[in-house]
Amino acid sequence: MNVGLLFLESISSGVITPDEMDWVTNHQGAFSRTEEATALRLGRLVDSGLIQLGCRI
Protein backbone atom coordinates (compact mmCIF):
# COMPACT_ATOMS: atom_id res chain seq x y z
CA MET A 1 0.00 0.00 0.00
CA ASN A 2 1.14 3.56 -0.64
CA VAL A 3 0.16 6.64 1.39
CA GLY A 4 -0.28 8.77 -1.71
CA LEU A 5 -2.61 6.31 -3.40
CA LEU A 6 -4.52 5.79 -0.16
CA PHE A 7 -4.91 9.57 0.18
CA LEU A 8 -6.21 9.93 -3.38
CA GLU A 9 -8.63 7.02 -2.98
CA SER A 10 -9.94 8.44 0.29
CA ILE A 11 -10.36 11.92 -1.19
CA SER A 12 -12.22 10.61 -4.23
CA SER A 13 -14.54 8.29 -2.30
CA GLY A 14 -14.84 10.28 0.93
CA VAL A 15 -14.18 7.08 2.91
CA ILE A 16 -11.21 5.41 4.58
CA THR A 17 -11.57 1.86 5.84
CA PRO A 18 -10.49 0.74 9.32
CA ASP A 19 -7.89 -1.58 7.72
CA GLU A 20 -6.40 1.33 5.78
CA MET A 21 -6.31 3.48 8.92
CA ASP A 22 -4.58 0.63 10.78
CA TRP A 23 -2.01 0.35 7.99
CA VAL A 24 -1.22 4.07 8.22
CA THR A 25 -0.75 3.95 12.00
CA ASN A 26 1.34 0.75 11.90
CA HIS A 27 3.72 2.03 9.20
CA GLN A 28 4.06 5.70 10.09
CA GLY A 29 7.53 5.15 11.57
CA ALA A 30 8.88 4.30 8.11
CA PHE A 31 7.27 7.24 6.26
CA SER A 32 9.32 9.86 4.47
CA ARG A 33 8.67 13.52 5.25
CA THR A 34 6.32 13.77 2.29
CA GLU A 35 4.40 10.67 3.38
CA GLU A 36 4.18 12.04 6.93
CA ALA A 37 2.69 15.28 5.61
CA THR A 38 0.19 13.31 3.53
CA ALA A 39 -0.81 11.17 6.51
CA LEU A 40 -1.27 14.31 8.64
CA ARG A 41 -3.46 15.84 5.95
CA LEU A 42 -5.50 12.65 5.78
CA GLY A 43 -5.95 12.70 9.56
CA ARG A 44 -7.09 16.32 9.49
CA LEU A 45 -9.66 15.51 6.81
CA VAL A 46 -10.97 12.63 8.94
CA ASP A 47 -11.09 14.90 12.00
CA SER A 48 -13.00 17.57 10.11
CA GLY A 49 -15.53 15.04 8.81
CA LEU A 50 -14.68 15.40 5.13
CA ILE A 51 -13.51 11.77 5.06
CA GLN A 52 -15.58 9.20 6.89
CA LEU A 53 -14.37 6.00 8.55
CA GLY A 54 -16.32 3.16 6.96
CA CYS A 55 -16.35 0.81 3.99
CA ARG A 56 -16.38 1.42 0.26
CA ILE A 57 -18.92 -0.33 -1.90
What percentage of amino acids are in beta strands?
5-15%
| Main sheet specs | 2 strands, parallel
Provide the structure class. Answer: mainly alpha
Multimeric state of these chains? single chain
Annotation, overall tally of beta strands: 2
Helix content: 55-70%
What string, H for helix and E for strand, traces the elements in order?
HEHHE
| Cα-atom radius of gyration | 10 Å
What's the mean pLDDT score? 94
Q: Compute the separation of the termini in Å.
A: 19 Å
Low-confidence runs: none
Molecular shape: globular
Question: Please, how many domains?
Answer: 1
Count of helical stretches? 3
Strand ordering within the main sheet: 1-2
Describe this structure in words.
With 57 residues, the chain is mainly alpha-helical. It has one domain (3-53). Helix content is 65%, strand content 7%. The protein has helices at residues 3-13, 18-27, 33-48; strands at residues 15-16, 52-53. Helix 1 runs parallel beside helix 3 (33-48). It starts with a helix and ends with a strand. The model has no long low-confidence stretch (mean pLDDT 94).
